Amino acid sequence: MNGARAAVTAAKEAQTQALTRRKKLELDVEEWKARAKKYREQSSSVKTNEAYKALQHEIANAEAEVSKAEDLVLEQMMALEDGERRVKHVEADLREAEQAIAAEKRQMQVQYGEKKKRLEGATTEREEIAKKVPEDLLTLYTRIEKRHPGSAMAEAREEQCRACGVRVLPHVLQMLKTETDEEVFRCETCGRILYSLEPIPHATPKETANGAANS
Ligand SMILES: [Zn+2]
User: Fold this and answer.
1) Dist. CA 168 → ligand 1 center (Å)
2) How far is the centre of ligand 1, averaged over its atoms, from the C-alpha of 202 (Å)?
3) pTM for this predicted structure
4) What is the pLDDT of residues 26-56, one digit of tens each?
């Protein structure tokens, strides 16, 4: 995008310079024409043959310069046409880049909208669920979540806290596997609320309490 914009600027600058050069060459043409005219006027009033010859020489020279400058003007005009095509080309590139960026931006806005909607849905859902959780447990959960964002709870499996990998005491595991147990157990190392999925036939994860919990 910045490259395309720089190319447009460079092409336009080159065009401006070429135009200045053409104007200068056109002035050269006019200047040499004026000189040739002046010499021709002088040649009608010279007294000597030598002076006449010298003027004829100057006239020929000035006319050669006129034609040289005219050729250069033509060349410059062709260069200007090329330059014009180049400007159009890089401008088209720039428009293409701008359109691509605009499309990307629109897509990002759509994605943002979708994510925002999902977040709002999840927030509402969380609020609904939080209403059913006892207040002290919710307070504890919120506190742990501050330390472990998005993972305030950890599964206890294969005698380990799956979040930090430290061993979970056998009696805690036993309690976790008892469906009727309502106590909350926490990992002694990372402090997360432990749950077990293994032996409980119903799908809901089980939270249990640790009387000697660290906070
Ligand atoms: Zn842990």
Assistant:
1) 8
2) 24
3) 0.54
4) 999 999 999 999 999 998 888 999 999 999 9
